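User: I've been trying to design a sequence by hand for this structure and keep getting stuck. Would you show me what you'd pick, starting by listing the structure so we're on the same page?

Assistant: Good idea, let's start from the same input. This is the structure you sent:
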């Protein structure tokens, strides 16, 4: 609450003067409640091989006292893509903007601007607040080094299994005997090999192969392989490895909330998506009762299921209802869901 008390005057005072202020108050979503936020929110990828793809997450927080909407960010170049962004932020909420840089479409240095507009409304005064933050992506694409494809993307990998993919690094510069001399990576997660492969005349090429180890835990993985070369100054190349390791069984949420529901009204439904690393059936849901039910219908085995949870308030059980459901499957894996609601008397 202290943050809201301090930042509210900033919002009210800054909004009318946005046109004269070289640093918009929207930049504070990325810098926090500092006195002088930077005029540009910068991500500099430095020098990268042509064809490489780089990703970055701009973290942000609503430090103001009003809910804010975020207009869809549109980069000023097709070489940068916004892959995901937070569209609505309540006070103190955290959010992000994910971007992907694709260097295959340009040579040399590049600066890409991404305007991000925040819009708020004070219902007590009917004032509208609008401000635009300025994000910048900078990079230099090396024309003499190419990576194909631009990244190693292993996709979805069931937990406990390996996955392998390779890319080719090609050097077409003037240095004779150019080669990769050292490879850096997290050995507890990956196995990486580098091997020379045939290349067009006047070029040198190496195949970089990354294998995900079976002991990697479930969740998203974004790692870097650092390739040191024999160029003067010890130049290094970065290769991105992405994967999403699927848990044996997971749910889109483990907390299901219904809020207040009146007795006698139409039953309220909530849907939870279950995902597994192998096809499965839901065989039983234990813990139902007090108006909480989960119907099971005949179904074929698949890796994704939608569980429908129904709340039908019972007149003999008014007030808060909380049930812990155990979802059992044909693979022997199970998980728990906590379901909460409030049974209310009819109005």
């Amino acid at each position: 609450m202290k943050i809201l008390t301090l930042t509210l005057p900033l919002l009210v005072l800054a909004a009318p003067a946005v046109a004269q202020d070289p640093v918009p108050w929207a930049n504070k979503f990325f810098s926090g409640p500092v006195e002088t936020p930077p005029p540009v929110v910068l991500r500099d990828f430095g020098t990268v091989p042509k064809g490489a793809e780089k990703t970055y997450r701009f973290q942000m927080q609503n430090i103001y006292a009003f809910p804010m909407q975020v207009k869809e960010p549109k980069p000023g170049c097709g070489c940068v893509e916004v892959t995901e962004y937070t569209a609505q932020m309540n006070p103190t909420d955290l959010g992000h903007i994910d971007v992907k840089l694709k260097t295959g479409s340009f040579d040399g240095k590049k600066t890409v601007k991404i305007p991000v507009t925040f819009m708020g409304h004070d219902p007590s005064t009917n004032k509208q607040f609008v401000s635009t933050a300025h994000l910048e992506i900078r990079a230099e694409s090396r024309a003499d080094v190419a990576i194909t494809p631009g990244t190693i993307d292993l996709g979805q990998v069931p937990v406990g299994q390996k996955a392998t993919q390779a890319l080719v690094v090609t050097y077409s510069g003037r240095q004779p005997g150019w080669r990769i001399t050292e490879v850096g990576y997290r050995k507890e997660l990956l196995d990486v090999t580098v091997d020379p492969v045939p290349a067009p005349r006047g070029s040198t090429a190496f195949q970089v192969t990354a294998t995900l180890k079976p002991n990697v835990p479930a969740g998203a993985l974004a790692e870097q392989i650092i390739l040191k070369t024999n160029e003067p100054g010890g130049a290094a190349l970065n290769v991105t490895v992405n994967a999403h390791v699927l848990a044996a069984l997971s749910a889109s949420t483990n907390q299901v909330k219904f809020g207040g529901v009146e007795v006698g009204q139409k039953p309220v439904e909530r849907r939870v998506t279950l995902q597994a690393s192998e096809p499965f059936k839901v065989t039983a849901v234990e813990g139902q009762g007090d108006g909480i039910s989960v119907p099971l219908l005949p179904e074929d085995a698949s890796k994704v299921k939608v569980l429908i949870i129904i709340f039908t308030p019972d007149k003999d059980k008014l007030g808060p209802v909380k049930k812990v459901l155990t979802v059992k499957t044909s693979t022997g894996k199970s998980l728990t869901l906590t379901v909460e609601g409030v049974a209310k008397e009819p109005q």
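That's my pick for every position. To get oriented when you compare it with your attempt: The first strand starts at residue 41 and ends at 50. The domain at 249-344 is CATH 2.60.40.10 (Immunoglobulin-like).
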